[in-house]
Amino acid sequence: MQASDVWPDLPFPAWKATYETLLRYTQIVGKVQLELTPRVNHWWNVAFHVDARGLRTGLMPYDRGFFEVAFDFLDHQLIFRTSAGQRRALSLVPRAVADFEREVFAILESLGIEVAIYQTPSEQPEPIVPFPEDFEHASYDGDAAQKFWRILLQSQAVFEEFRARFVGKGSPILFYWGSFDLAVTRFSGRSAPPRPDADVIIRESFFQEESSAGLWPGNDELGEPAFYSYTLPSPAGFETAKVQPSAAYFHQGLGEFILPYGAVRSAPYPRETLLAFLQSTYEAAARLAAWDRSFLERSPSFEQATPTAEETAPLPH
Hints:
The chain is 34% helix and 21% strand. By secondary structure, the protein is α+β, with helices and mostly antiparallel strands. Helix 2 packs parallel to helix 3 and helix 4 crosses helix 7. The longest helix is centred in the first third of the chain and has 25 residues. The protein is globular and about 55 Å long. The two termini are 41 Å apart.
């Protein structure tokens, strides 16, 4: 693969219409998962996973067993698979959100899966149009969707490396369809201040002190995808902390550090550039908030350690 394929260029304006449609597609499927799975801390049960072809749900139970749904960005299909061996596919093509929802539920019904969802998009600005009434969002540029997935793939690999350095409570690498971002989160082990006026989504998301980083598609202001890093509650001095690389900055409106995707894509060593951002923003947060880093982090010698023959021997049957 050429470098441009590994970290492809994806200006936000070029795929804004597809992004806004695909976001709603994923929310429809994500809300099915929300209804059918038990709540896990921080809503980890509703998020998607990046896989070798796109994004997929976790396993969901239904009367006849289990099923999963996957967005395949290579063949551009929405794939339904059940533990009974059934398979259905819906082509990912330009299609109104209202029609997409109707097709999804027709397939679910054909598989014997009964579920009802809250039919309003989440985490979106006004005016909010319910899915069955949304004929405005109807774009799908397969090339752009595939590029975004490839960015997620590369980002996930770096996020996994960053996650492995931490032995405290840490999230899986998850794609959240509400905000349409890929995230990795570390927790200090302490409770966060209560938010009595927050809704159930916010209360469940942020009940523990955390440092979170991720990738999102960007917006009209940023003009391209962006990596972010924030800490909640934010310690005094966090916004003025010195972080790496030099292209990173604290965005006052968002309340978090931002690293433009282009700064990673164009760097001689993208992996190292992104790791520097993840590590330096975390270290600033952990230092200022007085996290017990000796307890939460692996020692530097761990990554250099060579496993012994005994450690790599096959386990006995």
